[in-house]
Write a structure and sequence with these properties.
There is one protein chain. The protein has 2 domains: about 30-105, membrane protein fhac (Ubiquitin-like (UB roll), Roll); about 110-239, Rossmann fold (3-Layer(aba) Sandwich). Helix content is about 35%, strand content about 30%. With about 240 residues, the chain is α/β, with parallel strands linked by helices. It has a 9-stranded mixed β-sheet with strand order 6-5-4-7-8-9-10-11-12. It starts with a helix and ends with a strand. The chain is elongated. The chain has helices at about 5-30, 50-60, 75-80, 145-160, 165-170, 200-215, and strands spanning about 35-40, 85-95, 100-105, 110-115, 120, 125-130, 140-145, 170-175, 180-185, 190-195, 225, 235-239.
Amino acid sequence: MRINMNFIKLSGLLLLVTGLYAFSNHRNMQKKVNGINIEFVGDQNLYITQGAVNKLLIQNYGPLTNVPKEKLVLNTIEDVIEANEMVKSAEVYLTVSGELTSKIIQRQPIGRVEGETKFYLDDEGKHMPFSSSHSARVPIITGDITGKGLEDAYEILKFINTDEFLRKNVIGIHIESVENYQLKFRMEQFVVNLGNIEDLEVKFKKFKAFYSKADKDETLNEYAMVNLEFNNQVVCTKI
């Protein structure tokens, strides 16, 4: 029977590589964590601090430095961090040098609800508690705070955040009633009556055209109310 030497050589090489990999992996897992690194991805306004994350890990696992790598369950550590109300997602991994790294994406508030219960509305439309570390500068939501009202306020805020002019200038949303929403602007004394949330793009396009002309004519201070709820027109009430 002919012996295929190439096959034998290839099999031996594969066994050698597999053995070296297993040995290397075993030695690597025996190594200990030599440090912890916590990174925040995106917005650096920290609603949860590095110290708070470290404390969270210590409360659940004790000091992690010098813990053998093989004893760590990274998915579980991610779950613990993501359980914090300020965290949207977390990725935890070990570097080649043995550093335990956590990359954290925070939840992002886009509105602040001032009702019987006070909280943020985040960029997914969910309730988010206030942070003791940072106060977000976002539009304040007041008035008749209901489930439907907040859903609509969230849609208004999403639209506002797509427009640079609105994002810089709208500082408040007042829920007069369901499907009747009013906006307050940073520099102007008038109230913008939006009505319901239908055709937001058309309504704000009309408003920006009005604002541009009134600003040019220097008449913005003459108005108490700017009404956008009527089709194809802006109805203004003077002071």
